[in-house]
UniProtKB/TrEMBL annotation:
Protein name as catalogued: Tetracenomycin polyketide synthesis O-methyltransferase tcmP
GO biological process, one term: methylation
Originating organism: Podospora didyma
Protein's UniProt keywords contain RNA-binding: no
UniProt keyword annotation of Ligase present: no
Length: 261
């Protein structure tokens, strides 16, 4: 979806790396047209988390950024102007991308590493303890969890957040997650259900997470109908979002959360 968008003159995300990455893969184009609702929600989600990341790095030019479940996402490259930090060297942004061994192996082949900043790629499940224990807690830390939280068991997701809060004295954590009813209806979400993937985790109220640790504070909650850039969507998808906003149980179909540590 990011690759398709990048090829358009009116691109939303301008993720040229996504198109270049896809060309290197043994990838068979989908036989059916891409689901437009899924297409737009994915693009605007990435755009939003990019904007939140840029906002954090403007306030903390020597931060640590952890991207958990990075996959083949070019988040680091889209935000490359920030990686040099305040003068480079010891003040450069520390960037750590984390994913499973086989994903990291593929990523090293097809996604270029950022040329600036202090960058490392870690082979691990995000739910393992060892990798987080190796990250120095000496800087404000931003934890980006895009597209991953729904697939973690609820207890694993909460434990991960708790360990992050206990590890780093300041920073933010941001992620997307479906609501409870949307998770229950996931078999009707064809772009996901046809892959065999399963949503285990959901959240309707940020209080469900702030209860995990007393120092966790809500910074921003956006429902999918409030996503910046929604005016770029076709009218029928905007109408669908409006309908969701008035449907009990589906008002929180998808949400974007930002918490202060």
């Amino acid at each position: 979806m990011r690759a398709e968008d990048a090829r358009k003159p009116d691109s939303v995300l301008h993720d040229v790396t996504a198109a270049e990455t896809l060309e290197q893969l043994d990838h068979e184009p989908p036989k059916k047209p891409i689901n437009r609702a899924f297409y737009w929600s994915s693009l605007l989600r990435a755009r939003l988390l990019d904007a939140w990341t840029a906002e954090f790095l403007q306030a903390h030019p020597n931060a640590t950024v952890l991207h958990l479940g990075c996959g083949l996402d070019s988040h680091a490259l889209r935000l490359a102007p920030f990686w040099s930090g305040a003068g480079g060297g010891a003040n450069a942004i520390r960037r750590i991308d984390v994913d499973l061994l086989e994903v990291v192996a593929l990523r090293k082949q097809v996604v270029p590493a950022p040329e600036q900043g202090d960058y490392s790629l870690v082979e691990s499940s995000v739910t393992d303890d060892a990798w987080l224990d190796e990250v120095p807690p000496d800087r404000p830390t931003l934890v980006v969890i895009e597209g991953l939280m729904p697939y973690l068991r609820p207890e694993d997701g909460k434990r991960l957040v708790r360990r992050v809060v206990e590890r780093f004295p300041s920073g933010q954590i941001m992620f997307n997650i479906p609501g409870r009813w949307f998770r229950r209806l996931q078999r009707f979400n064809r772009p996901i259900s046809t892959t065999g993937a399963v949503f285990y985790n959901s959240m309707d109220d940020p209080k469900d997470l702030t209860a995990v640790h007393p120092s966790l504070r809500v910074e921003t909650v956006l429902r999918i109908r409030e996503t910046p850039g929604r005016e770029l969507m076709p009218w029928h998808l905007r109408a669908w979002l409006w309908l969701l906003s008035w449907t009990p149980g589906l008002r929180t179909a998808a949400s974007y959360y930002r918490f202060d540590l």
